[in-house]
Amino acid sequence: MNITYPILGIDVSKAKLDVCVREATKQRTSLIVANTPKGFASILTFLQKRGLEVQGCTACLEATNVYSAGIALYLFEHGATVVRANPAAVHDFMGSDLRRAKTDKADAILICMGKGRKAPSLETAARLVRGVARSHAAIV
Length: 140
Hints:
Elements: E1 7-12, E2 16-22, E3 28-34, H1 37-49, E4 58-62, H2 69-77, E5 81-85, H3 87-96, H4 104-112, H5 125-139
Parallel strand pairs: 1-4, 4-5
Antiparallel strand pairs: 1-2, 2-3
Helix pairs in contact: 2-5
């Protein structure tokens, strides 16, 4: 998997997304948006205001069941390479970095810095969307 900048590290919860943006210069910025289509669009606006594009970027997000499906699909449709990080791996790496703080912002930074990508169970957005679609079809 090729990592391209900017890198988006996204900690996903039901109501919000904590986003850490890492540029090629290694500069990091953070933002919090709603876990809704309007919130997804505000991430693109945030990037555009900084002269960055989602097309071709790497987005690494916590795999949190259906809560991560919307943002994963949105970023994938806008040309990002989407990688899911196992939440347990993010937590384990936080401990290995001797960090005590367990906050959504801290998780987003760790995901962005690549800590979660070392997890063995990575999936692209296409695989995620197929799984969600199958689950939805089984329920309906």
